[in-house]
Amino acid sequence: MAKSPAHKIGQLIGHMLEEIFEPLLREVSTKTDTYLDKTNIDRPSRTSKTLMHIDDQGNNHGLDFVYERFGDDNNEGLPIGFIECAWRRYTKHSKNKVQEIHSAIESLAMKHKSYSPFKGAILSGHYSEPSLQQLKSQGYTIIHIPYETVIEAYEYAGFDIAYDSETVLEDLLYKGISIDGLSETDINKIRSYIFKACHIGIYDFIHTLIGSLTKQIELINITPVIEQSYNFTEPLETLKWLTSSNNIHNRSINLIDLEITYSNKSKTRYERIETDSAKERIAFHQRLSEFKIEDRKVLIKSLDNLKQDTQIKINRSGKKVGQLSFSL
Questions:
Q1: CA 189 to chain centre
Q2: In the structure, how many helices (H) and strands (E) does the chain have?
Q3: pLDDT band at residue 97, thresholds of 50, 70 and 90?
Q4: Which of 322, 286, 298 is nearest to 192 (CA)?
Q5: Which residues neighbour 325 within 8 Å (Cβ) at sequence distance 6 or greater?
Q6: CA gyration radius for the chain?
């Protein structure tokens, strides 16, 4: 069945959203020494242009952006960040889209939970507050660009893309052709307007993203697991035994629980592992977080230009917007 013109417009706006944010996401990748994989690009390490990852159940999930540690064009790295982009014209469809995003990212985040991956969504259009809160409550970082802001951004570039259920077929086709034919200059104007209008949300998103990609080990907690068990019939005898330091310290340690806390407060936990395995995993996490602390501080500080107020008003009549600098 052929897709309706309205559905096609939605797809084009969604793809444009990826193009608008890609330069900023790629700059973050460069500055954090990570590899940014993206759908619809040629990458020698995969056979398809579509960016796909497989979860523990063998299910394929298409994604928009994935950050990798130790990856390059020819070798897949460790996935440490997942980001989805989506447009929704009507609020009634937002809950289904949120559930779709959650289903794809969550299963992959669970598979790679030892990396404590970043989970993000860049959403534009109409989304109900409960649907946004659903993602936030489950650890997702979100940029939400309201429907009106998207329409105004295209108007600023000289295009009318507003549509609803009453828009006639001819107008829908024309709007779709217009979006599909945007020049680089047009895209830059749209990007500039959206970045100015949503600069606080973008700043928060990028700040959290960088904090995740450059997280440092803050605390390592080791809890011995004692394999030997003891039986008591008297409570007082039990309490006396528990308070004896000799009983606690003289027993051999066979297994341990290991928990690593990072600077962004994410945690990785391993239960009942041998000490040799714990040593290997600590060394691995140290390598995973070897981004220099000094560089991280400089990078976080450079985000200040994302939230600067250029004192330029945005409105539909004036259609003038300041050009924010997003160089990190």
A1: 25
A2: 11, 10
A3: confident
A4: 322
A5: 305
A6: 25
Burial of 158 (0-12, 13-18, 19+ CB in 10 A): exposed
Tokens, residue 82: 């997942």
Is beta strand 35-38 parallel, antiparallel or unpaired with respect to 65-69?
antiparallel
- Average pLDDT (268-287) is 89
Exposure class string for 277-290: b at 16+ Cβ within 10 A, else e:
ebeebbeebeebbe
60-62/118-125 β-pairing: unpaired
Contact 181, 239 (CB under 8 A): no
Residue carrying structure tokens 């669970």: 110
Alpha carbons 133 and 299: distance in angstroms, whole number: 29
Residue 108 identity? L
* Mean pLDDT in residue range 274-301: 77
Average pLDDT, the chain: 83
User: Which band of pLDDT confidence, cut at 50, 70 and 90, is reported for residue 228?
Assistant: low
What is 257-306 written as a DSSP string?
EEEEEETTS-EEEEEEE-HHHHHHHHHHHHHHT-S-HHHHHHHHHGGGGG
